[in-house]
Fold each of these.
Amino acid sequence: MAFDQEKDEFKVVGTRPDRPDGIDKVTGRARFGADATAPGMLHAVIIRSPHAHARIVKIDTSKAEAAHGVKAVVTRADFAEGLDGENWNILENLMAGERALYDGHAVAAIAATSSLAARDAARMLEVEYEVLPHVTDVDKAMQEGAPVIREGAADGSVPAGMHPNVVRCHDSGHGDPEDGFAEADLVIEERFTTEATHQGYIEPHACLGTLGPDGRGELWCCTQGHWNVQKVCAALLDIETSKLRVTASEIGGGFGGKTAVFIEPVALALSRKANRPVKLVMPRADVFRATGPTASTSMDVKIGMKKDGTITGASGEFRCQGGAFPGAPMEFTAMCAFAPYALKHVHQVGYDVMTNRPKQAAYRAPGSPMAAFAVESVIDELCNRLGLDPIDVRLKNASREGTKANFGPSWDRIGLVETLEAAKEHPHFSAPLAEGAGRGISCGFWFNHAGETAVQLALSEDGTVQLSVGTPDIGGSRASMCMMAAEELGIPYEDVRTTIADTATLGYNEISHGSRVTYASGLATIEAARDTVKKLCKRAAAKWGIDAEAVEWRDGCAIPSGPNAGDFDPMPIKEIARDMGKTGGPIVGHFEATPEGAGVSFATHIVDAEVDRETGATTITRYTVVQDAGKAIHPSYVEGQYQGGAAQGIGWALNEEYVYDDDGRLQNAGFLDYRIPVASDLPMIDTVIVEVPNPGHPYGVRGVGETSICPPLAAIANAVSNAAGVRMQDLPMRPSRILEALKAGS
Amino acid sequence: MRYHTPTSFEDASAIAAAATGVTRFLAGGTDVLVQLRSDFVTPDDLIDIKQIAGVRDITRRGDGGWRIGAAVSGAELAEHKALTAEWPGVVEALELIGSTQIQARCTLVGNLCNGSPAADSVPAMIAASASVSVVGPAGEREIAVEDVPTGPGMTSLDAGEVVSAVNLPPRGEGGGDAYLRFIPRTEMDIAVVGAGVSLSRDGESITAARVALGAVAPTVLLVEEAGATLVGSTLDDTALAALAKAAEAACRPISDKRGTVAFRTQVAGVLARRAAKIAYDRAGA
């Protein structure tokens, strides 16, 4: 499974064929979560708490149950009891128990014969609340006297004496930063904050579920990982896993937010009670209020630097708020913070803090973008004050192969230096800046992940290929899978069709997360294709009456080799496929494993920004992403991932935020006031694909989907700070904040 | 919900006057349908005025001004070359709203009657001295646009009254208008501050000016003091500074998710200055 050094010439990989799902998507033929229907189907709504924190005194369902068209009402009592760990957290989040823990927390659900009837009945459901004190700010939640979200939620990692809302702690590093600071010519320590941002996928969560009295069910849903949905639903409904078959729909964006389970068990519980199929589509406001945004953070970072740019020491404390449940990705924030740099003295601490907000969910490189914002802002300020070039300083301190990482291991072959060198050579970096404009640089890091993976490759009688994978296609992976299969089999890209198989068809597949799909399902596809090739060669060998080992596979044909070379004409895949029924039966290749060797990935971004000093408005005028892809299978999709990460980063840096009022209610649960960038807000985002092969993949692939969102917050903040002449330490850098900073700075 | 399609404003008015529940008039529907689908407002009577003759006509009035039918969309208004040449500020204000799809539906009258203090076209109409024709149980009357909104979501129209058209006065020689808004994004957003300016020039000197501000008070404001600072000036720096000061002084905003009191107040002055410059240049062109 290691990098195939001989595979340096590709026929299909590296080209840019049309996407296989393109026509379906532009014609409306593609079926998303809300596009499924079933005979006798009911429509469901979820009733949610209007309070940030409240004891649920009583839920009276009688009037709602008696309402016209209503077939079932469920509350917490309709789900499994006795769960623990993350299953309990998921259940508690998708249907409140004794307390509503945030504005939007589900308390009941209704299924009726029409969505209008369900909505009418929802108004008749009576919930009595006793409002409790709440807290939504990460720093306030850690202070003495803050309302306790859940007693006893902390694990053993939390130092004694901390507030019960601090539930997990990460502490790592090496050397002694104080020694490092003593060697420095300049030490800067600053506090930074970021607000929670939502993944902002256009398609709301939606599903259609059926669960019969016999405990057998079917579920169609929009998810990044249907095996996980199957597992969670089974646990929360107390049924056997294999009795529920889950099919993943097309997905209208996920970005990590659809790795979590929010509504599917509710639809199934309603279906079980009504004995009818139940469709549940989240309204947009519910998506904002009750599905996971990323964590908000408060961070202190201290870095010392010598006049020559050498970083002598670094330390950081990263406080991450992940809503009313444990799980804020503070360990990733801490570990990613200083990853780009080779440091003798480094120490990072992370805290996972609970508040009265929705349960955070993964969002593209969870925790890493915020860390980069804090660290790379301090490095930028050090460079400014010491008069040093921001890329030269980063090159001087860059992590390289063999460097001991800030969180322990030594780096394998990595491509950070290559991205910095490419950024330095890019015309953008040396382009003159307009008067009043600023330029920002930042590096970013993400681990990448592999995970449990199973694929199957079946040969059709005409020689075309049906590839089944279990990882929902959230970023164009079907095209990449087709390309890797075509590359191995020596057949045209168009001869491979890749399908996302349901849970009954393949072995367990981990969620499409951690930028793992092109790496892990890709590796599995290559191995399944090689397995198929062996079987194809065996059929040819049998026909020719020679050893299977004496047959080579080249350009889609079996070819006799060694002593038999030239004895027989090449046998094309179509001929073997045509005859396979008579030569031994169906030909199917497969591969199952948990690969290890997802290569980490680094990026360097360059951003130019202009600030209107009278209104505080920021314009991003130029943006360049330089990132190591290991090997770009389909370069257009890789570029799309780079651009998408930058675009989401621009929104996060400038305008996106969860706004809470004093009552702890979310004020902007819609796309009007939750401002993701529109097309006219963005410049053309230029991309440079650097390829430093990952030794853990046959073609050298590294995941690319997440690293692209790691540098933007910092790079944009550096550009804006340099344009405004004031260091911006709080995100988002909304216009009012910039005006205030300009006023304070003048 | 009862859906009505009257063919005259008199009939529309009669239906509304007889209605006892929640009533909404429907033209483009870009506010009504959104409110309906979001469960904010579910009308008992929905009165579609698009079947009424002339509602999508733009006509030159006898006095040289314009009459714009109540259902004329942003796209239709923007395609009208003569009106756009005379009142570019009014046209650009309506054109800023929403996307291309919304532009095919949204109307000046809907924007006004929705009663939002942040309505983009309203400051431009007020600066332009626009009025609306209103048909009601007591007959027809004409009301200045600034007298229509009375608070967020509220208007001075009586039960049964329906707006049939917007009237723009004759532009005359040496006139120009402009509208600017501040939004955190570049499109598809709601004004944090809006400023409309209409003025007339005699040579370099300003002879008349009206300034209106949006999203800085419970209703769109006609700021007569701000207009007065410009009259007699050549829009020099002193006049611009006085304009900004007068605009800031008129602001009575709130702090909310879209902006703070301090931000809205400062930006109101900035936008008034910038809009005045554009209107001045247009007036001299």
Amino acid sequence: MNHILIWLIVSPIFLAAVTHFIKKYLVNFGFLIFLSVSIVNTCLSLLVFLESGSDILVYRVGNWSIYKGIILVADKMSLFFLLFMQIIFFFSLLFSKGYVKNDHGTFFSLFYLLQAGLTGMLLTGDLFNLYVFLEIVSIVAYALVAYDKTDHGLEAGFKYLVLGSVASLIILWGIGIIYATTGNLNLAIVAGLMQNLTPLIKGGVFIFFFIGFGIKFALFPFHPWLADAHASAPSPISALLSGVMIKIQLYSLIRIVTVLYGIDYIHDLKLNIVFMSLGVGSVLIGHLMALKQTNLKRMLAYSSIAHIGYIVIGLGSISPQGVVGAFYHMLNHGVLKIGLFYFAGTLIYHLNLKQIKDLKSLFWRNPFLSIMFCIFALGMIGIPPLNGFFSKWLIIMGVADAGYVIPAVIIAIGSFLSLIYYLRVVVIMFEPARKLEERFRIDPFFAIPIGAMVVCSILLVVFGSQIHLILHEIMLFIRDNSTYIQAVLYS
Amino acid sequence: MTLSAGILILILSPGVILCKKRWSKIYPILLSLLGLIYHHFLSVESSFVVKFFGFKLNLFSYRLSGDILTYAFLIFGLCVYIFLWSKEKDRFYYMFTLWQVGAAAAILFVGDFLSFFIFWEVISLSSVCILFREAGLSLTGRYFIYQMFGTVSLLIGIGLNYAHTGGMDLQVNTGQLFFWLAIMVKGGVIPFHYWLTSIYPEIRLETTVFLSAYTTKVGIYSLAILLPLMDLQIFGGLIAVIGVIYALKQHRMSRLLAFHLISQMGYVIASINSQIMYGQIGAIYHLINNIFYKGLLFMVAALLMDLFQTDDLMIIRGRGRRYLPLFIITLIAAGSIVGLPGLNGFISKSLIKKGLTNSLTANLLTIAGIGTALSFIKVLYYGFLCVNDQKQSSNSLRVKWHQYVSMSIIGLVCCLIGLFPFLVISRFDLTVNLFNWTDLWKGIWPIILAVILFITCFPQLNKLILQITPDLEGVFVNARRIILVQINLGLKHLQRLHSGNVQHYLVWIVLTILILWTYIAIMV
Amino acid sequence: MELIINSTIIILFILGLYGLLTQRNIIKLAICFNIMEASILIFFLTVGYKPEGSYPIIRPEVDSYVQPLPQALALTAIVIGASTTALMLAFAIKLYKRYHTLDIDKLRRLRG
């Protein structure tokens, strides 16, 4: 069964290599191939997730010993994220099929490379491999942001490229220092050798990883690229970047910090304060900047920054509820934000509407889309029956329980601010039409993913208790890294 | 394991969408009837606890006051649905109003903060949905933002409490201020009443009937659940007086009633946390009465609006005299609200006065009583009694039978619990006889004084009030404008920081690295 | 010897960073980025370096080799760095065609 793990990485890479041929020679059923691979991969990751139970799967590539070769490690946390990612990629594939015109294979090639890179980031158990996958993801993301070759896209892509490659360099420094001091790159082995590092270097490496990944997932002082890039990218890509990619970058940081440093280190150095203050900064800056945006996607992008802040605050509290809430919020925000970006993409594709003021009386032209937007927006604000509320609640309670009152208050105020800017859009959207506006129909390739996201967000509430169990297990793993290390060392 | 009646209604409410034309009107009536019967036979000992996401949702923990309020909520809901029979309302309207009824009835029995918060929000959300279909969007948006202000403050309060106790039980140990703020916003209490007085006059009055009965009452009732130790006597008294003074200024029925709503809530606030049993029971009693007579008055206003296309008393000027049953019903409602012996307002006001320990509050409430009486004499006079010298326009509109039915039910309830107060009070294991001369006289003399004042010097009084009262809404609007301008300036600065130059962003990164390094170096 | 190498690494890195923060030309930014990259590559090589070691191909007469792994890592990093640089230059070309400038300060349509 372990071979499934490598298949999940290799199959997208292989597809990425042959998309050109598929597009050229298999015009009619090329998309079917994509679709079937996606479905197979989703099913496989579901299978692995269900079969693995609470074991940690270790796959040694080429059957080398863990001291020489590279390994793939799949525990509950990575498999859960993997499943989530595969589902999202499946719907993104549908949406991209509708959205991307005149593609000769380049787009899907990049798309699959992104999928491969993200899967690799989730599964790898090796620092340098992580760096390689991270770079695959990043470079593909730079290219995809500029895929439309519009002025804004190019500019945003370039800015993202500059900041992102600086981040990669910083991460590479961290990895280099770790290799120089411990002589190994395997996470589990390095974790046992971390005491070789002097405290100052240990702290310095932590800062390298924190800032490097912080830039990648757009934490507060490093956030400006996200608003540019996510607003200018093609919409399915904005959705993927916002909904999945930044979460997986954050996942990588969590994995490195928890395995290499452990929770005690954060407690000892009071790094909670760093997490909290940057998280609070993200929440405030994200929401406040979103208030003044005129471009719909840019507003959504700033809201993403704020929600990353929620997640970081929740993780930084290290209280059980805060961490569970943060993980739950990753899923919720992912689903809702993807839905919102799909919404924006549908409008761009059908009507070429980008500005908020252009949405005037949209309701009378397409009620389905408008209602979907309202559901997503209410979820993002955190109104009770919807999923966004429960994660926000958990984060606030967890953070308050851990004794950080100000961040809890800020999150509560954040929902107030987000109400204001989402409401602005809704008010414009439901403005009575002066003349009878022509209705427009949307393609099923657009409607299905949007509907699916609504269904997902409802399912996330309905199966809340089951998800809570899984997330609780993940949280326990995070608090105690020894299971991971033991499982890898004695594989 | 039993559901409360409110949750039953909430669960069944989407069924109304499946109903065809006429059935969509019958369904809510049947549902509230069902809820009423269900609630009546509900066992007191039953409980309902659901585990959700690591929290225990305690959806049913019995409270006596909640039990009685549920009857009031459901009976009133039933009457309103009968009242709405001939109105053109679609299925969604019924669903949203059912949400409101259900959530309001459900919140009375919840036993933990999470479920309290959820139902609290469902009430807001359903109000927003109702308003959204009735009023303009900007108005709804403003309402939503006001409500969100309260919600956020409630959320902060709950967070502080959780940090303090680590539990979700409905017990406030810290952060009372935030809970107080949330309740005041929800209850529309001065100085947080702006949403109430600016929205009620703008929407259709039959919708106001719904909003007046549930949102504010739930807000004020939460005082008893959440802040039972807070002494609000003087505050309540002041609210009662200020509300009445502003009500006296109004000549539109809807605005007048909105301010009276606030004023009557002042009575409840003053005594709901009273240390004396009479006061607490009086407050709950008054909440129930308020649901009925205030609903009745709003119904009258709605009918006047239907009949004369206006609810401005100065335009109606006695044209209501042709509708004798309407006049009688108004008389009952007005009699209730001013506390005429024999009607329910008298009982609750007497109980409240018995429960006061602060003499200043007692005086304030007496003044408020005189003002209320004055105001409703004005309503009766200009609505029905005064002689109109203009030529009567010959409109042949008639009040529909079902409207009379629903209004008579409410009127009957008012008389019933006014004449036989033991119907309610005996459930509290309390006996009190208010029909003795001292209490009767205490109830009657403000009304007599008000009649005398109205006959002798009402125009002068009106002028005086107009002069001494500052324009509260103007103050609000100005304050809001100033705050918005400041926020806008701040946001502009923030936007300028995001200059679009990558190198600036790189500088931020380098600075952060340096700061964090220093931090680590110090901590190590 | 070690001092020289270490100071080279630090000087190169700071030089690159300084250039990245001050130069306004996009091409120069790419160059500065490469200088930073070079510093870290040198760092990788020094990690596995032994003064008396031979190149890492096993032969009977030699018993001390430099470590091969850092060299492999450096090679990978070079590849990644090269692709990043290529992408940066491609962006530079495209941006020049659109904005008719290579000045980073003029590429400011996305802001606020």
